Structure formats: structure tokens, C-alpha cells
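Look over this record as teaching material.
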Amino acid sequence: MQLYVLVFLLTVTAHAQADWFAWSNTEVQYLHGEGYQMPANPRDISQSIITVTHAHGWALGRNFFFMDTLFTEAGQPSQTSVYGEAYSYLSLSKITGRDISYGIFKDLNATVGVNAGENFDSPKSGARIALYGFTVDFKLPGFTLFNVDVLQHQVLEPTEQGSSWQVTPVWKAPFKLAGLSWSFEGFADFIDSKNPNYTFNILAQPQLRLDVGELMGQSGHVFVGLEYQYWYHKYGLKNLNESLPQALIVWKF
């Protein structure tokens, strides 16, 4: 119930935020896949994921957050868990009031973030992570968005894991094909090893979206497509790897 209340509030406030912020974007994604992996479980897991994302720009930068709610359907006992991330970016060009772009370089941001997760069926199973560093914004041909985060990745809980560096490119490239509007977008986290029990890992989630709302005269609101999830050394655990496609439906408000 709490999830639906949150989705409703985000939907309602998304329209009002046009007056508060320079721009805003809110969407709800539904994903379904089979082949997820978990520690100490040799079976493939099937699950559905509802993701709420929101981003907005303001006078000194931009903010972004997302929340996943994951529902296990097969491969392990039924579980519901949540995971979210939130980031704030302070733009050097906006703070100074000067255009600092040059060539493909667009802007530089001071960045802070938090990651948190919780499994409702396994108390005290969640992680708490603080991140801080900088983000470089690029302007590349064919991309409406291309940023690279360089962040210190500090695990607060479990306390024994420590810290390392995280590098995350984020991109969005819209294009036309067969007279239809498509978008290739996503991110990839590259996180360095922290200790013998937390090794270097990669999480990539590229998406291919088709604007089906455009076919009904409502461009930019409903999308279908595919997200491919690749997780090398999932959770920083050696030999725990994921590679699977996920069906994708997106509602944008």
C-alpha cells in the first residue's frame, strides 16, 4: 500500500513541480525477468520490479532519486524488498554564473548521494552507503544526456566492508527507426574492491525503449522495451554473476 501512495503523490506533484523547478521528470517502470541470482542459492530466480524515478533541475543544480520494489515470484521463498538511491548535484556553471563548457565538456558538479535497501522478510539485511565526489557532464552528438560520476563509495552498513571508488556513466540517446521514436539509455556502475570479501564489480542496466504512446497521439508518456541486466560479481561477491533480459513498461508523467 505504501508504494501505491508514493506513486500517487509523485504523480500529483509532478505537475506542480513545473512551477518550482526549471524542469522535472517522474516515471514508473515495471520490469519482469527470470534468471536473477542470489548468494547460496543455485536456482534461477524470477521476480517483478516496480521502479519509481524522479529528477528535477533547480537554480544551483539538479536532484535525482529512484526506488525499486522487488517481488520474488519463483526460485526462492516469496519475498518483498526495497532499494533506493538519491543524489544531489551542484553545478559549477550555475554557482558561478559562467558558461564553463568547452568542446564536448559541458559542466562540472559536486555530487553527494545515499544508497539504502531493506528486505522485509529478512530483518537487518539491508545496506547503507554514502557517496561523494564529482560528476562531469558532456555534450556528445546523438546524446541528450551523457554524464560520468566519479564517487567515493563508503559502505556504512555492514560496517566491515569499508570504502572504494565508483565510476558511473549515465546516458540517453534518442533516435528514429522505421518512422518510430526510440531511446537507448541507462547506466553502468564500476565499483572497485574494498577488501578480500568485497571484490571489483560491474552493474550495467541499458534499456531500449519504444514510444508506443506516440502511436496513440500521446508522445512521451508510455514506452515498452527491454532492459538488459549484467552484474559481474554481484554484491561484490566473487563468482556471483547475473546476465538476463527484462521486459520493460514505462509510464512517464
Remarks:
- The longest strand covers residues 41-58.
- Helices lie at 2-20, 92-96.
